[in-house]
Amino acid sequence: MKKIVLSFLFVWCSFVSIAQESLLQSGPMVGYSDFREALIWVQTTEPASVKIGYFTAGETEKFTKEVQTTVEGDLIAKLFPNEVDYGKTYTYKLYINDQYVPRDYKLTFQTQTLWQFRTDPPNFKIALGSCSFINEKKDDRPKPYGAKYQIFNSILAKNPDLMLWVGDNMYLRTPDFMTETGIRHRYRHTRATPELQALLGSVHHYATWDDHDFGPNDADRSYVNKKLTEQTFNDYWGNLNTNAAGNGGVTQHFAWNDVEFFMLDDRYHRAPNKDPNQDKAYLGTQQLNWLIDALTTSKATFKIVINGGQVVSDVAKFENYAMYPTERAELFKRLHDAKIEGVIFLSGDRHHTEISRLERVGAYPLIDITCSPLTAGTHKPRDEGNTLQVKGKTFYNRNFGIIEVSGKRRERVLVLTIYDSDGTKAFDYTITAQDVRYPRK
Predict the structure, then answer these.
(1) What's the chain's Rg over C-alpha atoms?
(2) Would the pLDDT of 5 be above 90?
(3) pLDDT tier, 20 (very low <50, low <70, confident <90, very high otherwise)
(4) pTM (2 d.p.)
(5) Which of 110, 144, 170 is the last residue in one of the domains?
(6) Taking a C-beta distance cutoff of 8 angstroms, is the pair 284, 247 a contact?
(7) What total of structural domains would you count in the chain?
(8) Long-range contacts formed by 56-61: CB under 8 A, 24+ apart
(9) How far apart are CA 330 and CA 29, in angstroms?
């Protein structure tokens, strides 16, 4: 009799677990990490109660507050484990309607390390990429544009601490642009990509956008639904903050150890590419002023400025910043006038990877690492006219980057390695803290 009861309980528990698993649309995804809390994002298939249990070795499991997902909230739950200690890694579990929902991959998050005034900053790894197109046959062009989704598992295999999504993280399509239903459909479809789920579950994710996750191709400030895409973007990502410049858009700032990240919005305030005025807005005055203020205030070793489009390339086409020459020149001048050290640019958009390097008189060079695409289409090698391109540091297949930051406080080293979809190394590039300082007299 006892065996029959145990067998029944096992079958029943398995049935309940499978039933709750069917309520999971996508996630869980790890969002920001801070000292006293982190964020976990989950989306369900129908209204449900969601919570996270979390623990470290030897600890009793603690739980977040339960969140009820609703149709009005796009069935999204954002959960905040906040009974945590500094500098620890936590295993977590997902519960839907009070039932544990197992995943067949690692679920962890980490808290920031309080190293200041105590030790050298910890070493860490950053993944980066842009241009992630996930096919949906009925909405796509006749020839599929997305491929090699295994890249997400290749990224996870490199064990990054966080990932920077540099824009075009999903592609709105013709049926999507004009309604909130369409916009949210595209975000929901992309986020549920099976190959993506394991990467979401244990790496902290931060994102900005470019034209394709903001609106139509080459979209600018005139896009009528930009407030809808702003809200949808904020719902689907777990960034630490947004609208940092205070005038709309997804501008953000956060720190990880001794590196600070400044994620820009190159769409919300952007004048049309075809505007004939040389002094037309790209970031816009308020965002540019915020960026200079924030960089001036920062004491970070490396100040990584992330923008959807290329900043340093001198090609005045392909939507590069060079098409907005007055504002671009103002940015570079103000960086120099304020003697802001440690600035490195990251960009995407171009569907190939390259490094641009602008030498400056009496100042360190400005370097822009362009990393693209993840799964979207590629083009053949070609000379686009970027005279600042670093020779031998280009790649024209689908790829991602890993940045490793290591070393003592004043001797930090940043090493970028570019990998193809299968995780095979293409090239690397090293920047030391000394390389991005002003010459000392």
Answers:
(1) 22
(2) no
(3) confident
(4) 0.95
(5) 110
(6) yes
(7) 2
(8) 56/88, 56/89, 56/90, 56/91, 61/93
(9) 38
